[in-house]
Amino acid sequence: MLSRQMVKESGRGTHGSAGAPPGRHPGRVVGLVAAGALVSALAQSLFVPVLPTLPALLGTSASTTQWLVTSTVLAGAVAVPLFGRLGDLYGKRRMLLVSLATMVVGSLITAMSSSIGWLIVGRTVQGLAAGTVPLGISLVAAVVPAERQASGVALISGMLGVGGALGLPMAGVICQYVDYHVLFWITFVVALTAFLGILAGVREAPAQASGHLDVRGAVLLSLTLLALLVPLSEAGVWGWSSPLTLGLLVLSVVLGAAFGWAQLRTDEPLVDVTTLVRRPILLADLASVLIGFSMFGSILGTSSYVQAPAATGYGFGGSVALAGLTLLPAGLAMLVCAPVAARMIARIGAGGTLAVGSLVTALGWGMRIVLTSTLAWVTAGTTVVGAGVGLCFAALPAVINANAPREQNAAANGLNALARSLGISVVTALCGSILATLVTTVGSATLPALAAYRWIFAICGGGALVAAVMALGTRGAKRAV
Length: 481
Description:
Elements: E1 6-7, H1 26-45, H2 54-58, H3 62-65, H4 67-90, H5 92-111, H6 116-127, H7 132-143, H8 146-177, H9 181-201, H10 215-238, H11 243-264, H12 273-276, H13 279-307, H14 320-370, H15 375-403, H16 409-437, E2 439-442, E3 445-448, H17 450-472, E4 479-480
Helix pairs in contact: 1-7, 1-8, 1-9, 4-5, 4-6, 4-10, 4-16, 5-6, 5-7, 5-9, 7-8, 7-16, 8-13, 8-14, 8-15, 10-11, 10-16, 13-14, 13-15, 13-16, 13-17, 14-15, 14-17, 15-16, 16-17
């Protein structure tokens, strides 16, 4: 184990200042990595507004086209912890380039395909790029001067929310006027630009772990995640009480237990369970589930809410483009909150910033429950949620970086990103179930009732309050580097 010295929770004086000369152009490094993080986040949400039109265009069923989203989520869930560990072993910059290369290849396949099979292949390859954000966070924490780390990490982490919030309006507006393939030519160009820029202008992180990849652990974790996420994604089609749904969920528990047992009994684990259960890291990962839940709940809830007919008593009968534009201020709020969060982390610590962000998120959800009369109020509530999520996304990696051993930094950030993805998967399944259960009849159409949305908003707000309590448990945490 490396020799250790105590550092403050905010992460000042950690990786970037430990034995590595500062980067000559830290702003350029952060900008290039942030571009890669943005395109990775965009790819997660780009297809959401397009899905309803694809069955007719591709001559297939709605359940089949849903795999254009599900395949990306599944590939990302598997890639994030695996790429994180490989980054610790073989170089964060190297694995970041591999991650961006999968986005380039996946975007090219998708942009040039019009058959459902090849589109799913392309989206699966794109999903492998989900490791871009945690790898980018770890790389910046290692090569950027200490005084620039907090703002750089905050910006890159914030791209998760910004990409999600901007993906819907961008896809809605573009697909209203041109072919949906344009979306993937855009991700191809941005990913290729980030890849070439990082290849030419960003050096490798100086410190790497030793050892080998735990192949058995990687297989067990991948199977666990697949057994968990497939039924969460398909429960709306299969039914929550179907033998297939319940069987896979039980299998995920069994495989997860086997994975944990195996990790405790290997000298070079894929996931160091003893690090994972440290209080600050464990609480940050649990909070990440809840914040991911809140972020995607806002995207899903706002999009369908705005598009609902006015005859429902709450909807605005808006287009996909209008629904996306309603989310645009939330994306901008996340972007603005990145430098604000960096200053807050320096003053009150990452745990305090995470608590404040969670409370702001809960406030936004309270606004969504109460203020429903105009589109302006809906936008205001969504924007407050976005601001809170932006603060949280900036604070979470700071908690991880301050408490994970340096040789496990990328893996720890990868697991935190995985926790966020689990929250997104759970809220997607939950929203679908609630919106299908609490309904109202408008003419001959059956549509979600206002009560369904209020339940979703209340659950998301309650989750944010729980995250705030968890955040307080990470305050004052110290670690050795």
